[in-house]
Amino acid sequence: MASGPPRRPPARRGSADPARDRWWAIEQIRREHASVNGIRRQLGTGWRTVWESIQPLLAKADADQSRFEGVTILGVDEHVWHHVSTKPIEDGGRGPKELTGMVDLTRDEHGRTRARLLDLVPGRSGQAYKGWLQERGEGFRCGVQIATLDPFHGYKNAIDDQLDDARAVLDAFHVVKLSTQVVDDVRRRVQQDTTGHRGRRGDPLYRIRNILRAGAENLTDRQRARLQAAFAADERHVEVEVAWRCAQQVRSAYHQDTHAGGRVIAEQVLSSFLACPIREVARLGRTLKQWRSEFLGYFDTNGASNGGTEAVNGLIGTPPSHRPRLQKPRQLPPTECSSSAAG
Asked: Which of 98, 180, 242, 268 has the fewest C-beta atoms under 10 angstroms from its C-beta?
């Protein structure tokens, strides 16, 4: 069966540089969250025409190993394609649903982090991360000084096994998230113990559920008054108040003027939470004790964080229904090559 004539590569109206058009399409996908389908609508061509034009450039970029050079801070995070089924490819599936993403978080000369996606590999496990680190070679692994991660022991085991000289750092956002979850757990338990039912609109603790998740430094006077009124409504609400103050203490460690001051508070958290009579707070203390070195690593590495990895993860996972409008193609100024060709 004949394959037919080759498809014409996509070109914008008035453009005489097909190579530049291909890179324009790639940049729209990379920077503007555009889809191949959105680009083909703008160009008035077919999906396969666009894809077959940019796919060789993407394959060449994927094979370029120079992107792994100079990485000193490495971030890792899981990623799930929610629009992809778990069916195998041979059964009509579209590929792996769960992946592990590696991001370069190396700071520039001004100390700013320029998060850059390095790779995505199938699998959401420590073994997937470990295998990727092994493939990078000894030179790459020796250059990594800091490895940031979420509180997942699979990734931690891979770091301990492959990045012997790197300092593992627990992401600050997830530490605060754990402490906030403790407040929610205590509030729900005390709610059941005191009323015998889940939170209802008129219940004091239910009315402050959102205020409990906010930082004390962001509360208004009215919110503070509502908070104190709920704590005073029943003497058994003291557990909620203690849990809230413990969560605020964890938050305050990341809001100090210096990292040394934050480390002092973090040390206090590690030494005091374990002895707390509130079981949820004590459980958080045990968790932080298991991650002691990684928890304190934030303050010893000038605030290294996995936030850039989370940001990249959010970009590559932006669903099509939430993508911003594709920029309208515009004619670029002619280059010397195109001017000479026209002449």
From this structure: 268
